[in-house]
Amino acid sequence: MPEGHTIHRLAAEHLRMFGGRALRAESPQGRFAEGARRLDGRVLTEAEAHGKHLLLRFEDEWLVHIHLGLYGTYTFGPVPAPEPRGLVRLRLTGVSEFADLRGPAACELLEPGEVKVLLDRLGADPLRADADPERAWRRIGRSRTSIAALLMDQSVVAGPGNVYRAEVLFRQGVDPGLPGRALTREQWSAIWADLVGLMRVGVATGRIDTVRPEHTPEAMGRPPRVDDHGGEVYVYRRAGLPCLVCGTEVRTERLVGRNLFWCPACQPAAR
DNA sequence: CCAAAATGGACAG
DNA sequence: TGTCCCTTTTGGT
């Protein structure tokens, strides 16, 4: 379930498990065999997330870039690690724990120049202290593209994915189809602040929970719902179900290749 | 057994 | 805008 909060958790987890000590690295699947050989026996010095990208730095300037994409997952466990099951692209083994990476869109060694190119094209990450939401606003405030599409553009905002996109627009009562330049400055500030808050909760809990206390199933007298993204949400993947706030049917539509969800009553189109 | 879907993004045109 | 690539899980035959 990789949106940005997952990647920030993974970075912290890597440091906790492996930081400062020599690691074993291998690629049981074989597709990162060369890279794993370079890393094997080296010390992990740094792990950080930029949006949905995970960067692991090792001694001697070696840097691994990992992007989970849609399917990538990590599993962790205590040593001794069992025989790899499934297609394990990269296994790191430390003193007491191991990490298996399966199905990433990217797992590669990068040169410093390539890292810079990568970071330069990423927009503001709500989970990073060095994020620049002003720069994002300069793009959004001039764009004819819908705010729903802009929020998924990683060169504008880096980290939120389809779930946070849908949920923050719902919470702020913003029509997904609203062009970026039709947003007010205040609306953008509220969206940004909400993303920061929601995603910090996500890092702390490992789930995406966006429902305010007054709208929880308990408070509304409904049965609790837990979908496989792990948390309680207002509209994501709730097409055809009643809006948790007003009861209107949640709608869905394909937008730039992704499923968008919203409540037409709580997020009315401007007229 | 097979098909479809999934929280992403690169690339072609 | 569409196509393709990562892999696992789920549901239907």
From TrEMBL:
Catalytic activity entry: 2'-deoxyribonucleotide-(2'-deoxyribose 5'-phosphate)-2'-deoxyribonucleotide-DNA = a 3'-end 2'-deoxyribonucleotide-(2,3-dehydro-2,3-deoxyribose 5'-phosphate)-DNA + a 5'-end 5'-phospho-2'-deoxyribonucleoside-DNA + H(+)
Domain FPG-type as annotated: residue spans: 234-268
Coiled-coil residue windows: none
Keyword Lyase: yes
Domain Formamidopyrimidine-DNA glycosylase catalytic: 1-99
Cofactor: Zn(2+)
Lineage: superkingdom: Bacteria
UniProt keyword terms in alphabetical order: DNA damage, DNA repair, DNA-binding, Glycosidase, Hydrolase, Lyase, Metal-binding, Multifunctional enzyme, Zinc, Zinc-finger
Keyword Chaperone (UniProt): no
EC numbers: 4.2.99.18
Family named by the database record: Belongs to the FPG family.
Name under which the protein is recorded: DNA-(apurinic or apyrimidinic site) lyase
Source organism of this protein record: Actinomadura fulvescens
Native organism taxonomy: Bacteria, Bacillati, Actinomycetota, Actinomycetes, Streptosporangiales
